[in-house]
Amino acid sequence: MSTRSFMEAMMLFTGVQKKAQMEIDRVAKDRLPAFSDMELIAYVRCLMKGLWRWGHQAIGHDPERYEDPDRYWPERYMHDKTTSINSSDVSLRDHFTFGAGRRVCPGCNVAERSLAISIMRLLWSFDITLVPGTILPLDPARYPSMMPGNPGLNLPVTLTVTNFLSAWSERLWRYKSSF
What are phi and psi of 82, to 5 degrees? Predict the structure, then answer.
């Protein structure tokens, strides 16, 4: 669900996508982003926290807890250094995606790292846009799949390879030519 929410957010909030791409380019313009880049690209962490809050949990859309709760606004987490599971004060938690207390998901660190590398590499490689003529707001029920709650293969997304690939192609050509 996190990857689907990420794709949806990038299709709908193109300014957020461009800002994230600029941050990723600043650190890893000429190479594929790595886990170690996460420390240097704070905005990716904001994207993730925003996605988990923006999901379908009612508490994430509570106007008492969040200004403009239906808006996907990663900047709200720019100075937040807590993780979702380490805040002892539940009222300060930013989301409950991984559960709480003794029932917290033991794989939350794997999930967080997997989403981070997916976000960095997708944004490094592609521009993510809606198919022209897509009916808004996006409704997952319009794009059913065999797995309830997940979009089917007809999700109206277009992935356009960015110019980074041309730099890699050029390097590969030079490498092959050197033999």
Answer: -80, 160
Chain centroid offset of residue 66 CA: 19
- Residue 112, both tokens: 């967080």
What is the per-residue burial (b if ≥16 Cβ within 10 Å, else e) of 60-80?
beeeeebeeeeebbbebbeee
For residue 159, the cross-strand partners are: 128
Nearest partner of 104 among 121, 125, 83, judged by Cα: 83
pLDDT for 56: 67
pLDDT score of 30: 82
Q: Which residues of the chain have pLDDT under 50?
A: 179
* C-alpha span between 76 and 25 (Å, rounded): 22
What distance in Å separates the CA atoms of residue 71 and residue 67, rounded to the nearest whole number? Answer: 9
pLDDT of residue 102: 78
- Sort 170 into a burial class: Cβ within 10 Å, 0-12 / 13-18 / 19+: exposed
Q: 158: closest CA among 135, 126, 136?
A: 126
pLDDT at 27: 94
- Total count of residues recorded for the chain: 179
**Rounded to an integer, what distance in angstroms lies between the CA atom of residue 146 and that of residue 91?**
37
